[in-house]
Amino acid sequence: MVKRIVLWFFGIILLAAVLSIFLPDHAHVERRITIKAVPAAVFPFVNNPRNTEKWSPWLERDRNATLTYSGAAAGKGAKLAWRSDVPDVGAGTLEIIESKPNELVRVALSFEGHGDATSYYKLKPENDGTSVTWGFDSMLGWNPVKRYMGLMFEAWIGADYERGLQNLKSVLEGG
């Protein structure tokens, strides 16, 4: 009986590993909001890591997180390292790796103990404001566990991205 249980257990693990080959090798999350402000007013808030303190959904969870800034003051090369004892905030670094004024900011992210990813902010004029798209991409490779975890990113950070964009809108629209 024990032998059958062990064989079933290993069979299920093998099946899960084989099925993971057919799962996506990347995770993607994206949210969008329209802010009643011109792109030139929105851009400084996503192009300068220091300004994220005003609207970050994660820093709301831990106002005592340690933040360290380095590199350029804003734009390409601007860096932020954070550390928190709150598990939802954790520790890591971000660095702006691409900056096109009033259009795009691309960020390299490194989460301590959890891997690397990229994030971006796309700004587009829209009627009397700016359409802001905040996206996240992470390559998962061939690791079966990471591929299964990749299915959860939408649930894990989608609401945080929505909250962050609402915070940004509130800051910029004076709410």
Q: How are the secondary structure elements laid out?
A:
Blueprint (H helix, E strand, L loop, with lengths): L1 H19 L5 E10 L3 H8 L19 E6 L6 E6 L7 E10 L3 E8 L3 E12 L2 E11 L4 H7 L2 H21 L2
What does this structure look like?
This protein has one domain (25-173): 2-Layer Sandwich (Alpha-D-Glucose-1,6-Bisphosphate, Chain A, domain 4). It is elongated. Helix 1 (2-20) packs across helix 3 (144-150). The protein contains four helices and seven strands; from the N terminus they run αβαββββββαα. By secondary structure, it is of the alpha+beta class. It has helices at residues 2-20, 39-46, 144-150, 153-173; strands at 26-35, 66-71, 78-83, 91-100, 104-111, 115-126, 129-139. The chain is 31% helix and 36% strand. A seven-stranded antiparallel β-sheet has the order 1-7-6-5-4-3-2, covered by helices on one side. A hairpin with a 3-residue loop joins strand 5 and strand 6 (115-126).
